[in-house]
Amino acid sequence: MSPSKIDQTVGVSILGVPGLPEILAGDDLVELIVTALGSAGRSVQDGDIVVVTSKIVSKALGLQTEPTDRAALVIAESTSVVAERRTADSVTRVVAARSGPVMAGAGIDASNAGDDLLLLLPRDPDAAAADLHRQFAARTSVRLAVLLSDTSGRPWRAGLTDFALGCSGLVTLDDLRGHADTDGRDLAVTVRCLADEIAAAADLVKGKIDRVPVAIIRGLAHLVVAPDAVTPARNLVRTGSSDWFALGRAEAVRDALGIHAGSPQSQHVGIESVASEPVAGRMARAVRVALHGEDVAAVDIDPVELLLTVSADEPVGLGRVWARLEVAFAGERLACSAVRGPGGSASVTLQVRER
């Protein structure tokens, strides 16, 4: 049966698993889930998909730490920084987390963590899902799949939704490319992410406030397969040439000028704020970015008139800095017009304005 086919006579059921206690390091999650199901008069059935919030997996694995330096911890739990913005009292970073997905703060979470601790995501969520899968197999005789879910925002969309952080025994993708739609046209690019759809559906009966961290999806038995026959959740992340958004707008410009997101240099020259900023402040930050590593120019800034006069020892040096300034201004969504100094001198005055 194709992954896209659902038995419409049966439908899909989403069942929350209430009654789980506060999870502590070393707890047997599968035993606690089976017990909670039994107390509710339920049990796992053949073809079920068990969706487990990653937070309780992190708790059971003891992935808790003191919140001494959260910013440094985010960098340590990341492979790269995609975007960073200043807030009122800190810097928020969207990163490629070591656990796989691109998300804010590397998925480090303080909500429901207890004792003012921070929870880290498992470094290998697919392995964590596979371990739970093996434990379910050892305790039950049914064929099921396990999905670890987490919560994240998405580009261009308001609000948060759950997604598949780790999977075991679940068909994660439904590739419809090469098939025809109802009008006979080829589906050239349609690949459904079933794992994310299931994670989001499960969250309808879970949630941080209701404290129901586990759900059972029933009615999708055709998606439950052997653990080694599926695409891992880590592979659902776009990378390389398929990733059109490897860096944010400002970060891409700064990266081209040698200021890498998350680096000490980025902190030194200044990070864009989530709040509205005056043009003069953005202009000054762009100048710091443009002059990073450059020692060939002198700069005089008039923040009131938004004028910038640049002088260099020779025209080549001036041209280099001039070009870097225009690029840096573009990264701040500013534009400029330029007037050369008198007599062909190695100087230029730029009038800066909002684009």
Please explain how this structure is put together.
With 355 residues, the protein is an alpha+beta fold. The chain has 9 helices and 16 strands. The chain has a 5-stranded mixed sheet. A 4-stranded antiparallel sheet has the order 13-14-16-15. The chain has a 3-stranded antiparallel sheet with strand order 4-5-6. Helix 6 packs antiparallel against helix 9 and helix 8 (279-290) crosses helix 9 (315-331). The radius of gyration is 26 Å and the shape is elongated. The model has no long low-confidence stretch (mean pLDDT 89).
Descriptive tags:
5-stranded mixed β-sheet, 355 residues, 9 helices, 4-stranded antiparallel β-sheet, elongated, 26% helix, 26% strand, alpha+beta
The count of strands amounts to: 16
Order the strands across the largest sheet as they lie in space: 1-12-2-8-9
Largest sheet: 5 strands, mixed
Percentage of residues in DSSP E strands: 25-35%
Low-confidence stretches: none
Mean pLDDT across all amino acids:
89
